[in-house]
């Protein structure tokens, strides 16, 4: 599998929101033992994204291989010219081919194109690979809080990027 075997799209189609929610729930349950609480959190976030969607300010990128979504990332507008990065997910068998880097490049290019002045994201301490990538793009840890929001004890972390 190579990155050149994948296609990328930014338009949502029927079934995409449900599929992204499902894959977040299934992957994070398998890899991190997160409960249905996490899947519900993702579903609500995707509902919020779509219900406030502005094509001039918001964007989702879906990586596909043979018609199957294998990766996603989203940039959502927030008040005060801020953007939130969300729904970054790679199917396990598509990790290590540069897909995460490609999705981050697409996301950050849109961030810059739209003139956002800051960005933030929330993750958990367990997402070491994603955190390393966020840091390479200039995100810095700004807040930590203990949480059981996803069905088990963990540390939620906020990372901020200021232009």
Give your account of this protein's structure.
By secondary structure, the protein is α+β, with helices and mostly antiparallel strands. The chain has one domain (3-118): Aminopeptidase. The chain is 35% helix and 33% strand. It contains four helices and seven strands; from the N terminus they run βααβββαβαββ. The chain has helices at 16-32, 36-51, 99-113, 128-136, and strands at residues 7-9, 59-65, 68-78, 82-90, 118-124, 140-147, 154-162. A seven-stranded mixed β-sheet has the order 1-2-3-4-5-7-6, with helices on both faces. A hairpin with a 3-residue loop joins strand 3 (68-78) and strand 4. The chain is globular and about 35 Å long.
Decide which structural class fits the backbone. Answer: alpha+beta
- Cα distance spanning the termini: 35 Å
Q: Which stretches are low in confidence, meaning pLDDT under 50 for 5 or more residues running?
A: none
Please identify, by name, the CATH architecture.
Answer: 3-Layer(aba) Sandwich
**Could you give a short account of the major beta sheet?**
7 strands, mixed
Placed side by side, the strands forming the largest sheet appear as: 1-2-3-4-5-7-6
Mean pLDDT: 96
Report the portion of residues in β strands. 25-35%
Return the domain count.
Answer: 1
Tell me, briefly, the overall form: globular
């Amino acid at each position: 599998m190579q990155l050149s075997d994948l296609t990328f799209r930014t338009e949502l189609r029927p079934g995409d929101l449900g599929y992204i929610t499902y894959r977040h729930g299934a992957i994070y349950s398998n890899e991190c033992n997160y409960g249905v609480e996490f899947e519900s959190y993702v579903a609500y976030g995707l509902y919020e994204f779509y219900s406030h969607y502005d094509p001039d300010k918001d964007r989702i990128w879906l990586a596909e291989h043979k018609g199957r979504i294998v990766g996603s990332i989203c940039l959502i507008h927030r008040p005060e010219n801020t953007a939130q990065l969300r729904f970054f997910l790679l199917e396990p068998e598509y990790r290590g081919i540069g897909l995460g880097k490609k999705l981050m490049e697409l996301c950050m290019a849109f961030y810059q194109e739209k003139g956002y002045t800051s960005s933030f994201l929330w993750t958990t301490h367990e997402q070491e690979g994603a955190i390393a990538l966020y840091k390479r793009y200039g995100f810095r840890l700004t807040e930590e809080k203990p949480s059981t929001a996803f069905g088990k004890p963990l540390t939620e972390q906020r990372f901020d990027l200021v232009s």
